[in-house]
Amino acid sequence: MQHFRAPRWLPGGNLQTIWPALFSRTAPQPPPAYRRERWPTPDGDFVDVDFIDAADPAAPLLVLFHGLEGSSRSHYALAFAHRAAALGWAYAVPHFRGCSGEINLAPRAYHSGDHAEVGWMLERLRAGRGAPLRAVGVSLGGNALLRWAEEAGDTASATAGAVAAVCSPIDLAAGGHAIGQGFNRQVYTRMFLRTMKTKAQQKWQQHPGLFDRERLRAARTLYDFDNLFTAPLHGFRDTDDYWRRASAKPHLQRIRIPALVLNARNDPFVPAHSLPGPHEVGRYVTLWQPAHGGHVGFPQGRFPGHVQSLPEAVVAWLQQAC
Predict the structure, then answer these.
(1) Most buried of 31, 136, 236, 255 (most Cβ within 10 A)?
(2) In whole angstroms, what is the distance from residue 237 CA to residue 153 CA?
(3) Is the domain covering 13-171+247-321 a CATH 3.30.420.40 domain?
């Protein structure tokens, strides 16, 4: 995957982002059926976790943390589900709060640096299993997963054998400013804000006065949304404080388990100049930075293409890493 090249019929980072999400095949066969569990959280809320069980109870468990406004039905989640099933592994997708199709109860949602929530989910998934699990985080979920590994340090190995972050904006300020400009603002920002604002309005109805509803309705960038909603609801002073403290990039040398950080250099959300170099990571971190792939795209094959190469490469790395 570090030498990935997109098919000639799908050039450019935007096409390699949009087309796979909408039209490329996740696998030749229909998606496997999920089994859902609802877990009460320590603060009186809930999260929903979708599972695909393995025939062998001792099989490895692959955990996937989805991206911004993602779910177990996102194209990449289905592609990883097929890969786990092909290997005979169990598979789990914990949903961040409010992303499972039902709004959560507490006056909070989720954010890019939610390492405490990730740690709680991983510990519960690990309980009762004979071997450490393997975890993948996509985009926002990857940054949060890396933040967990950074904060856990030497204790992380008791829970996860290896982790991988796919197309994650580990420099949140660079990614946030990139998505707020030009084509990105007109297409991707509008797409995200459409669902994020709807959920925020539902949150306001649960907890009237939680934020300035009229100002949030007028927000046109993720920076503005985070300033009014994400940052204050999760203990940050403002967007700049949130993006600085939640970014995984400054702390990569603290990771003490094998960690793959995969970013395409033509990702429209994650500027290539913001990606870490080998001198900025510790010995446990592997960097893959192919020239092509877009944002969680990595399409291959003849038209309309497929997205199976990404989970195949990432899971193969996780297998050899632990």
Answers:
(1) 136
(2) 26
(3) no
Share of residues in the chain with pLDDT > 70 (%): 100
Question: Which of 82, 111, 295, 306 is the catalytic position?
Answer: 295
Q: Is 24 a catalytic residue?
A: no
For residue 88, the SS3 value is coil
Tokens of 49: 């976790």
Contacts of residue 67, Cβ cutoff 8 Å, sequence gap at least 6: 74, 76, 138, 139, 140, 141, 142, 167, 296
DSSP conformation class of 95? P
**Where are the domain boundaries for CATH 3.40.50.1820 in the chain?**
13-171+247-321
Provide the pLDDT for residue 1: 74
45 is a catalytic site residue? no
Name the nearest CA neighbour of 63 among 137, 113, 150, 124.
137
Mean pLDDT of the chain: 96
**pTM for the structure as a whole:** 0.97
Which residue is catalytic, options 139, 168, 247, 274? 139
Among the listed residues 267, 274, 292, 306, the single catalytic one is 267
